[in-house]
Amino acid sequence: MNIKLLLMVLSAFAILSLACIASAQLPVGVKKGDHIQYQVTFTGTPSPDHSIVQAKMEVLEVQAPTIKVNILSTYANGTQVSTNSTLNLQTGQLIDDFIIPANLKAGDKFLDSNVGNITISSVEQRTYAGATRTVDTASSGSNTYVWDQATGFSVEGTSQGSDYTMHSLAIATNIWQAQNQILEFDPTTFYLIIAAIIAIVIIIIAAVAFTIMRRKK
């Protein structure tokens, strides 16, 4: 075999092998149909094109390492804008780090093409969209991020602009089920509900006893 041809074949094989290894190191935790909704609040005065109050992100297609998503943004004036975007975990095209590789641990890094490598600073247990989840946290510049570890979905973030601060928070999703909300009531509210139930039961018992006594007489 021609030496040059052999070297070309070996080089191509090496490149493909490295690409496969790199892709294997970037697990995708989302699937088609997954969606998550966010509530967005501001301090300061954002420009009209940043005054988003709600957003919903849905996964349209997954072909690792690319993920196609639709983002439906609701602005303060009620206008809704639907945008399709393609994320790429390999090249770091993540827009605002909406989805990152799944199952990252503290100290792991991923590429954001806008700022370079971002390092996971901690892994914690927090409650989002009604359920306790294991999450990854990180910061870059003046921005802070929280992602659901199992899926890589963003669940919370704070971004600092020149004249405003934006905070996004996941409030609903079809990926996990919300836990029993009664366990998350404010203690005062919970005790008031219990007291009201007891009072109603006492009134019913007293009424029944009174009726029985009258019948006996």
Explain what this protein looks like in three dimensions:
The protein has 2 helices and 11 strands, in the order H-E-E-E-E-E-E-E-E-E-E-E-H. It has 217 residues and is an alpha+beta fold. It folds into 2 domains: 28-181; 185-216. It is elongated and about 115 Å long.
Question: Order of SSEs, N→C?
Answer: HEEEEEEEEEEEH
Spans of at least 5 consecutive residues with low confidence: 16-24, 181-185
Overall tally of domains: 2
Beta-strand percentage range = 35-45%
Class by SSE composition: alpha+beta
Number of strands: 11
Rg (CA only)? 26 Å
Main β-sheet, spatial strand arrangement: 4-3-2-1-11-10-9-8-7
Coarse morphology: elongated
Distance between the termini: 115 Å
Mean pLDDT across the residues is: 86
Tally of helical segments: 2
For the largest beta-sheet, the strand count, sense and barrel status come to: 9 strands, antiparallel
Helix content: 10-25%
Summarize the model shown.
This protein has 217 residues and is of the alpha+beta class.
